[in-house]
From TrEMBL:
Pfam families: CH
Calponin-homology (CH) domain span: 21-116
Annotated GO biological process: mitotic actomyosin contractile ring assembly actin filament organization
Protein name per UniProt: IQ motif containing GTPase activating protein 3
Source species of the chain: Nothobranchius pienaari
Source organism, top-level taxon: Eukaryota
Length: 116
């Protein structure tokens, strides 16, 4: 039986979603290995990344003098859990961007704060 155009579109969208979740799982495992801590499931990881805490911790891992732990805002994510995203959380993303810039990652490959 031949698929309709709508069914083929649905299959393509499901494949794209599956591929995205696979890449997110790969990123999660890499971050867990770097940070030596357990991270939430891939379906929750995307939301967790918004506050930049994990990214700032990665920045500390790769450039500890540039991103000391004391510079990370809300490292235990208590404020984020209680009050949601705050403007100061963007500092975490900026710390991470500084760290990857110091490693030589070209700007074109770095997401903007609003992308995260």
């Amino acid at each position: 039986e031949r698929l309709t155009a709508e069914q083929m579109d649905e299959q393509r969208m499901q494949n794209v979603a599956y591929q995205y979740l696979c890449r997110l799982e790969e990123a999660k495992r890499w971050m867990e290995a770097c940070l030596e801590e357990d991270l939430p499931a891939p379906t929750e990881l995307e939301e967790t990344l918004r506050n930049g805490v994990l990214l700032a911790k990665l920045g500390h891992r790769f450039a500890p003098t540039l991103v000391p732990l004391k510079k990370i805002y809300d490292p235990e994510q208590l404020r984020y859990t209680a009050q949601g995203l705050q403007f100061r959380h963007t500092d975490n993303i900026n710390h991470w961007r500084s760290a990857v810039t110091s490693l030589g990652l070209p700007q074109i490959f770095q997401p903007e704060t609003t992308d995260v």
